[in-house]
């Protein structure tokens, strides 16, 4: 005799099977329980264990047919202006399976406010007074919602949203601060990055939507949307702007932002020549600081010193001020960003990490510039290893050393280990900042004017309710447009093109932002 415990691994499968063949969670619960109960009862009759799978799903199909017939007359009680010549016989369900399958799906796409009343009134046969008592709302409200639900169902049965057939792919990221690494400490986007959440966020972006509207747009039952909405609310990705209407609470970059990026780059052209001259002059002056340059070429270092100079000049010369990243639910300060495939602000990115909490004194800054190779920032213990190699020539952390060699931060040579990242001690970095202020005194004014002009058009790309976030992004344009400016300078022959495997990163002592 077969062991009934075999049913345990089928519980979730049966529930999924039931959900696809019913219109509500309550009905799915009931159907799945009947399937499992019947299978357990009939299991002693099965002698061949190899035939269990087809036998089990045969049981499920038979129980489902009986279950549906039992509700056949109840289904006939609500036509919602659908054809009114439907029969009450047992064959009723089979002859109208496609019609009622479609209608059940539409009922499932109603929000709970309407769906619960429909179920109680027509499926459980309760009077409007009984529904009122069960839900704790006035009977007049029940009648009004029933009327509204009928209207919604009629409208939904007449039209289908094409967006339900063409879901969007929304890439999500964050900017700001937080001790995330994407592995044992997931980024906040990991909790809202499923396909349905992406589509909800996309459809709620420029126009607030109700649960029913989202269900129709996404082509899924409303209770799935409600589950995702609750999660998105708790993750601060959406907000309820009015009763039952939801709106995405972050910027989404699309084709129009890409187009503006291409058109807006022209505004930077006036800054190209004076900025390139300042970058080269600064590179000449930094040679006197005698810092560790990791054997990088002067052309490569010119790009690095350029972005380091802008960071040093940012607070004083950035024409756009912002309050910074706001505090989030997890205690960190950051923002979500969405993209339909567009770039955020050209070819620039930045990552930083510090090791002040692990006994070290340096931070690692890793910049992405168009044409440069990208490599992730180092983490605390890895920065410590680089410090050890540079200061003492060896390290006792063999595991981190091996990882650093693998990722290209350290090379093993005949004469020992070689760190491939430039290093600025604190005093040298302070002197560097002074040099940047002196060398870029005129060029930074031209650049700041170009950033202001670019930001004026940039603000118009996004919904007005995101003004605070847009201002923060405009503040970051002062740094982010550096990548675009470098591209213009290369096109004009003012800077060398990046060589193969050029990387733009640096270790700076106690420069944690």
What is the gist of this entry?
The chain is an alpha+beta fold and 513 residues long.
Please, could you describe this protein's structure?
- The chain has 513 residues and is an alpha+beta fold.
- It folds into three domains: 4-159, no CATH class; 164-249, Winged helix-like DNA-binding domain superfamily/Winged helix DNA-binding domain (Arc Repressor Mutant, subunit A), CATH 1.10.10; 261-347 and 430-502, no CATH class.
- The chain is 51% helix and 11% strand.
- It has helices spanning 11-19, 25-42, 52-70, 72-76, 92-95, 97-108, 112-123, 128-135, 139-158, 195-203, 211-218, 222-234, 255-264, 269-286, 298-317, 380-392, 398-407, 426-439, 443-458, 467-491, and strands spanning 171-176, 238-242, 245-248, 251-253, 334-339, 348-354, 362-369, 410-413, 416-419, 423-424, 504-509.
- The strands form four sheets. The protein has a four-stranded mixed β-sheet with strand order 6-7-11-10, with helices on both faces. The protein has a three-stranded mixed β-sheet with strand order 1-5-4. The protein has a two-stranded antiparallel ribbon with strand order 2-3.
- Strand 2 (238-242) and strand 3 form a beta hairpin.
- Helix 11 (211-218) crosses helix 12 (222-234).
- The chain is elongated, with a radius of gyration of 31 Å.
- Residues 73-95 have low confidence and may be disordered.
Question: What is the average per-residue confidence, as pLDDT, rounded to a whole number?
Answer: 84
- Tell me about the biggest sheet? 4 strands, mixed
User: How many structural domains in the coordinates?
Assistant: 3
Query: Order of strands side by side in the largest beta sheet?
Result: 6-7-11-10
Q: What share of residues are in beta strands?
A: 5-15%
- Globally, the shape reads elongated
Give the radius of gyration. 31 Å
Number of strands: 11
């Amino acid at each position: 005799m077969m062991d009934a415990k075999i049913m345990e691994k089928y519980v979730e499968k049966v529930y999924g099977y039931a959900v696809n063949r019913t219109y509500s969670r309550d009905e799915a619960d009931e159907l799945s329980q009947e399937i499992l109960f019947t299978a357990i009862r009939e299991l002693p009759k099965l002698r061949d264990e190899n035939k269990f799978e087809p036998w089990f799903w045969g049981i499920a199909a038979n129980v489902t047919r009986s279950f549906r017939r039992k509700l056949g007359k109840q289904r006939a009680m609500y036509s919602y202006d659908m054809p009114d010549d439907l029969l009450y016989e047992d064959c009723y369900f089979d002859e109208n399976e496609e019609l009622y399958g479609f209608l059940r799906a539409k009922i499932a796409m109603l929000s709970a406010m309407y769906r619960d009343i429909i179920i109680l009134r027509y499926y459980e046969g309760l009077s409007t007074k009984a529904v009122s008592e069960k839900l704790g709302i006035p009977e007049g409200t029940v009648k009004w919602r029933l009327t509204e639900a009928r209207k919604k169902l009629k409208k939904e049965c007449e039209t289908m949203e094409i967006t339900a057939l063409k879901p969007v792919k929304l890439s999500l990221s964050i900017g700001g601060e937080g001790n995330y690494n994407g592995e044992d400490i997931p980024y906040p986007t990991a909790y809202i990055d499923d396909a349905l959440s992406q589509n909800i966020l996309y459809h709620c972006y420029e126009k607030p939507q109700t649960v029913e509207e989202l269900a129709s747009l996404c082509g899924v039952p409303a209770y799935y949307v409600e589950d995702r909405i609750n999660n998105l609310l708790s993750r601060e990705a959406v907000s309820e702007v009015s009763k039952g209407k939801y709106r995405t609470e972050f910027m989404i970059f699309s084709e129009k932002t890409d187009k503006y990026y291409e058109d807006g780059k022209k505004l930077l052209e006036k800054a190209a020549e004076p900025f390139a001259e300042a970058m080269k002059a600064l590179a000449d002056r930094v040679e006197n600081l005698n810092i560790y340059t990791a054997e990088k070429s002067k052309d490569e270092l010119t790009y690095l010193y350029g972005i380091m100079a802008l960071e040093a000049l940012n607070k004083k010369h950035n024409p756009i001020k912002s309050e910074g990243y706001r505090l989030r639910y997890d205690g960190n300060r950051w923002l979500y960003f969405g993209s339909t495939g567009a770039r955020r602000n050209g070819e620039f990115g930045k990552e930083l990490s510090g090791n002040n909490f692990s006994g070290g004194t340096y931070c690692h800054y890793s910049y992405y510039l168009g044409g440069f190779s990208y490599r992730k920032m180092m983490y605390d213990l890895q920065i410590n290893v680089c410090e050890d190699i540079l200061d003492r020539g060896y390290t006792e952390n063999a595991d981190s050393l091996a990882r650093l060699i693998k990722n290209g931060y350290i090379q093993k040579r005949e004469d020992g280990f070689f760190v491939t990242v430039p290093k600025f001690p604190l005093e040298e970095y302070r002197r560097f900042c002074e040099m940047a202020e002196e060398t870029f005194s005129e060029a930074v004014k031209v650049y700041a004017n170009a950033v202001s002009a670019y930001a004026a058009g940039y603000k118009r790309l996004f919904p007005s309710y995101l003004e605070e976030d847009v201002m923060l992004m405009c503040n970051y344009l002062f740094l982010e447009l550096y990548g675009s400016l470098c591209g213009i300078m290369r096109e004009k022959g003012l800077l060398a093109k990046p060589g193969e495997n050029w990387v733009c990163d640096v270790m700076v002592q106690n420069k944690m932002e």
